[in-house]
Amino acid sequence: MGTIVDTERTKLQIVNAAGELFAEFGFQGVTARKVATKAKVSLGAIPYHFGSMDSLYREVLIAACLVSNEAAPLAQLALDATPEHGLRLAVEWTIKDCAAQKVAWPVKLIERESIDPSPAFREILKRKLKPEWEWLCTIVGRAAGMSADCDSVRFGAIAMHTLTSTLMTHRRILSEFAPNVVTKVEDLEAFVDMFAKLTVDAVMRFSTAFESASTNSQTSVKKGIKKKSKERLKS
Fold it and tell me: Domain residues of the chain, as ranges?
């Protein structure tokens, strides 16, 4: 009889093998036999450990979305810190989480799901990724002095996460075009400080471009309504 360690090792082996296949071929293009062959386990190991291919796929998605051990402790520290330092920790959280990726399939699988989300991925979005997103918006909102649920803050969170994660996950390709930029990421403190400032700047620029424009538009509409009301009263 296998030990608990053996069981967990076999499950991890299956998840990694399945992750590579799902990332390349999608859920519909992968069979239990293909997973078993790649993982070098018996075909019966799939239903024994996961019950079904649907359940296996959910486990693979959860594994793909896990925050790394290097980044995880920074989440609470960011909430406990001052707003400015908390934002820097959030940027560092994104960098360390992406930098900890040792295999490519989690990024490839999430990119595939981003284009055509499956019901399983939508479930993971609600259960796991949405709370992380709200945490990030809270951090960005505190730094910008705005509510976490306003559009400007959410744009700032999108800008920060997209730019930092893209730079980290695509750094091998980007180094072909901008090698000096990519190597400067190694100066973590300067890079984090720059992106923290860029994030707040993105919040303010969005607010100026859209939310101020919306307020001006609403004011113009109100003035127009008042003008028409006065004209009716005169007539």
Answer: 4-65, 74-222
How deeply is 62 buried, as exposed, middle or buried, from its count of CB atoms within 10 A (0-12, 13-18, 19+)? middle
Task: Give me 5's structure tokens.
Answer: 């360690």
* Residue written as token pair 């705005």: 146
* Helical spans, DSSP H, in the chain: 4-25, 32-39, 45-50, 53-65, 74-80, 83-99, 105-115, 119-124, 130-144, 151-169, 171-177, 179-183, 188-206, 212-234
Q: What is the pLDDT of residues 186-231, one digit of tens each?
A: 788 999 999 999 999 999 999 999 976 555 544 543 444 345 445 5
pTM for the structure as a whole: 0.83
CATH fold of 4-65 reads Arc Repressor Mutant, subunit A (1.10.10)
Residues for the chain: how many in total?
235
